[in-house]
Amino acid sequence: MKWTKKDLLDLESLNREEISMILDTARSFREILDRPVKKVPILRGKTVVNMFFEPSTRTSASFDMAAKRLMADTVNISPKTSAVQKGETLLDTARNLEAMKIDLVVIRHMSSGAPHFLASRIKSGVINAGDGQHAHPTQGLLDMFTIREKRGQLEGLNVLIVGDVTHSRVARSNIHGLIKMGARVSVCGPSTLIPMGIQDLGVKVYYDLDKALAEADVVNVLRLQLERQKKGLLPSLREYSQLFCVTEDRLKKAKPGITVMHPGPMNRGVEIEPAVADGASSVILDQVTNGVAVRMAVLYLLSGGEGSISEAIKKEA
After folding, report:
1. H/E/C letters for each residue in 198-266?
2. E strands of the chain, at which residues?
3. Smallest Cα–Cα separation from 291: which of 29, 71, 2?
């Protein structure tokens, strides 16, 4: 199978074979990250522009590192360094950068649909690094990659997503990707943080965390996005923590060997107990490592890469 898409904007528009292709390619790059020399010259001569208009640590660093591991040139744009502050439109910014003969644009933006807007108007490939509350496809992919590496498969697994589902682009990307790969997905949280009609996506809804955990093979704990919430959605953080924090005591009642995930940043003691975040069930740091490999795979495929990674390395060396 050959990759044919110019952009990666969401997981809704990918089929099962395309998702598998990214995950399989990422596995090869994950092996490279364990080598003493972690760079391969596959994208030498390519230029990747990272445009982050929202705060980011893991995703921005991960994309930057992924490009550099592939020996691409990188340009990092932030609101403070962008002419957007002077009144330039997002499209004019992108077109001016494209005039410098770039190859890929990675964009995070507070407005849902901003990556789609750019992708339809510039020739360079566009990768969505998170847009508003809509999608975060590479986070969904790295979560699926981590689950598959840890559990051996995605098909048939029960994956529980806990917390602020309403405001989470991570939850939406995970739901679309996991269901396409044959997993069973459920969500749990306060009724005020579970969007109406989410059952239509094929998920099961819980409002009791202990009942939800009893059936879960994997639990993905979401950050409580207080900056996006309107007042009145939660009585207090203390009450939320009492009802929905993933704790050691709760995990003792869950399935043996349950896998714990979190996309970060974590609010320790609110969404997840520190002992759980740092415990034997946690794969949170594995997610971060795997994120580099997944983003290497995405950059490689959108740059026209195909065939085995080892052959591509020999060709470019």
Report:
1. HHHHCCEEECCHHHHHHCCCEEEECCCCCCCCCCCCCCCHHHHHHHHCECHHHHHCCCCCCEEECCCCC
2. 47-52, 73-77, 104-109, 125-131, 158-162, 184-188, 204-206, 218-221, 259-261
3. 29
> Considering the entire predicted model, what is its pTM?
0.94
Q: Along the 317 residues of the chain, how does pLDDT read in single tens digits?
A: 889 999 999 999 999 999 999 999 999 999 999 999 999 999 999 999 999 999 899 999 999 999 999 999 999 998 777 777 778 898 998 899 999 999 999 999 999 999 999 999 999 999 999 999 999 999 999 999 999 999 999 999 999 999 999 999 999 999 999 999 999 999 999 999 999 999 999 999 999 999 999 999 999 999 987 665 556 567 788 899 999 999 999 999 999 999 999 999 999 999 999 999 999 999 999 999 999 999 999 999 999 987 667 666 666 55
User: One-letter amino acid identity for 216?
Assistant: A
CA dihedral 155, 159, 164, 168 (to 10 degrees): -20
The closest of 78, 9, 53, 58 to 223, measured between CA atoms, is 58
Name residue 33's amino acid.
Answer: L
- Torsion sign across C-alpha atoms 35, 41, 44, 47: negative
Show the CA angle centred on residue 291, arms to residues 285 and 294, nearest 5°.
145
CA distances, 132 to each of 50, 109, 220, 225, 255 (Å):
17, 6, 20, 12, 34
